[in-house]
Amino acid sequence: MALMSSLNCQAQLLPTPTQEAKPGVRWWWMGSAVDKENLKWNLDEYAKAGIGAVEITPLYGVQGNDKNDIPYLSPKWMDMLKFVEKENKQVGIETDMATGTGWPFGGPWVPISEAACKAVFVDTIVDVKQKLMEIEFNVPLKERAFAKLKVIKAFPMEGEKYKKRVIALYESRTRQKVKRAAPGGEGYVIDHFDSTAVANYLQHIDSAFVASKTPYPHTFFNDSYEVYGANWTPNLLTEFEKYHGYKLQDKFPEFLDGDAVVVSDYRETLGDMLLHNFTEQWTKWANKRGAITRNQAHGSPANLIDCYAAVDIPEIEGFGLTDFGIKGLRKDPGKTRPNFSDLSMLKYAPSAAHITGKKYTSSETFTWLTEHFRTSLSQMKPDMDLMFCAGVNHMFFHGTAYSPKNDTWPGWKFYASVDMSPTNSIWRDAPELMKYITNCQTYLQWGQPDNDFLVYLPVRDMWRKDTKNWLMQFDIHSMAKKAPEFIKVILDIDKAGFDCDYISDKYLRTCTFKNGMIETAAGTRYKGIIIPGNNIMPSDVIEHISELKSQGAKIIKGDNIKAMEQAAKPELMRKTLGLKMIRRANSIGHHYFIANLTSKDIASSVALAVNEKHGIWYNPMTGEYHEATIGDKGIQLNLKSGESRILITSNKPVNEWKLGPKVKVGGKEAIAAADSKTIDLTENAWKLSFIEDAPKVDETFNLKGVKSWEGLSDKAKVMMGTGVYETTIKLSKDDAKKQWAIDLGDVRESARVYINNKYVGCAWAVPYILNCKDALNKGKNTLRIKVTNLPANRIAELDRQGVKWRKMKEINVVDINYKKTTYENWTPVPSGLNSTVKLVEIK
């Protein structure tokens, strides 16, 4: 029986897509004004496109639609949730939900006594003889209705015999309300550091599920920590003394004056209270009800590794568009946001998952890339690839808004979103992106992480900086200022060819040294520990590191590349070629995800860090497998700028892998050679017509030479839809025997190619090149290219016409700088085939 099980396992050697490998999407319910007919339509559209999970997040509503709003957690709202859960089982979508409306946690059931808390200190100098209770403290006017006196302490003043310093601590409330709250969700944000406040908040949500007998969702979600000015909680002084062995109130002068040690101890206490009283309690609550948690820890005033690691699925966030300089990838000057989430930021959540043995790392993906209506599929892929290289393997789009099927275009929209929705023209070819993500995540969820080093997160170095403002929050936008030295070390490790995971005191304490490797309690193995910064760490952690070193563990101080090279073998594709990659271990060897996020095409042999001589390539864009050549000089790499591949390696010959009947490994992937023949079709006679177009363009254009369509007519200039380009080409007998690829040049924005009515593929990301395979014949061949553009030109025309499509409440639709805007001054964006079309011989 054991042998049969082993053989069956081998027969299924390579992974196959699962539900969890599909992309998820944040699903905004505007005003929760949903109905069953349109819920079903939305879910059917998502399922057909390849979405695997929806995360329900109720928000503010639509203007003039109040009568259809459904209060959060009301019986009707729970009935809608129950309907979604039932429908999703039919279409194969996982149901997740935010643990509240908008963000952060809060609502009308949160009393002011459990709302986010802040300290108000009144610092004064009085006569040494004055009694403390007789002092009139000047509490700020706006705090007087909420502030409660907690502590009064007097302190002697150096050189002042007749004066004393008196400090009074008042506890007040920030009165922050839930941001972007939905009907029934408006109210105070909770005190995340108060276990009772958190428990009461969750109990209210729990009661709605119990009363309505609604099944709990698969996952409860928590967005990034955006609680402002909450720097206190009623039990902080007690907890501080437990943690540090002295009373914070005895050190009020040092605290207020910014003493580095005292402020650091305060920050550590506050962070631990958030971890235990909020993050851990919330996860235990969800797990007890058969659900799991997915959490964004960034923004919180705590050790991010500990908070990410405390949940079932840690989630990082991508915020902006990275300018990689990829060849042929269009830019949109002035209409994109720079990406605040570089590799060093993206690695927090994956690190927490890796060191604790969690299978999945999620990402809030494409929060802001460009202005609304201007984001293409091609612009999404590079930043998605960077996230994959950081360790993400369970991505969620940010996002899609529920919109009624028959609502006037563009329908209901969220203010900060790539708008991955059925009303966006890019939705037509979005299933190709979904397939790509699913194929990548199938492999990135397989096996175990195989990064080289643990890097100690020097959070105490950070906590001892900028101490005049005691509250320190680790949000995406300010990490470059809070941890520049740490970020430099991480980027230097990457440039040197290595990969790493971050580790905190909590998880370092349980690491052991086994068989020449450092091993976490979850069994993840590393070749050494890198300790950047000033080595400010607890004494027991220092002792444990010393003990690991005495056993033979490699302990590397600072940014010592030479010491790293003595402990591990760098990946030269990362070090010398500048490729981004991640390596994972599996049952037969290793596999790599590799992305060329450089401006150069790369054709080179490079040695691998793993000494494995057999392998195959997997192209996640096409789903095809090809032979990999691993010789004395290493692996032969051929990656054009913007391309990505998965490499599977082993010491077993491929014919012993037992791949199963569905996996067909072809020969070497055909590529263009220096002597390849090219047939230029650019100046051909082309016919251009339109389908799925709005407004309707009835005219058919006969073009002498391929060109984009926004300049062809007034209607074409403002049209959103698909242009169909058609031409013919004659091939000689000799040419028909050759292998060909079609290079579409600059595509705006995605193109489906048909040759002789045979579907060749969809070009949706750079380089826009497709293998023609056996579609071309001797003699006359018909080429048809269906190109879909962005909705930018259509929405700009609506603004010029004064159409009132911005109908959401509250923030409505804003620009990338969160300011009100209109689009009537946009010049038409290129649409269609925008440069050349060529057949290129491949060998």
Automatic annotation (TrEMBL):
* Any Pfam family hit: Glyco_hydro_2_N2
- Protein name from the UniProt record: Glycosyl hydrolase family 2
Q: Which InterPro entries match?
A: Beta-mannosidase-like_N2, Galactose-bd-like_sf, Ulvan_degrading_GH
Domain Beta-mannosidase-like galactose-binding: from-to ranges: 724-810
Molecular function (GO) terms for this protein are: hydrolase activity, hydrolyzing O-glycosyl compounds
Q: Say if the entry is tagged with keyword Transmembrane helix.
A: no
Report the PANTHER family cross-referenced here: DNA-BINDING PROTEIN (PUTATIVE SECRETED PROTEIN)-RELATED (PTHR36848), SECRETED PROTEIN (PTHR36848:SF2)
* Stored Gene3D superfamilies: Galactose-binding domain-like
Provide the alphabetized UniProt keywords. Answer: Hydrolase
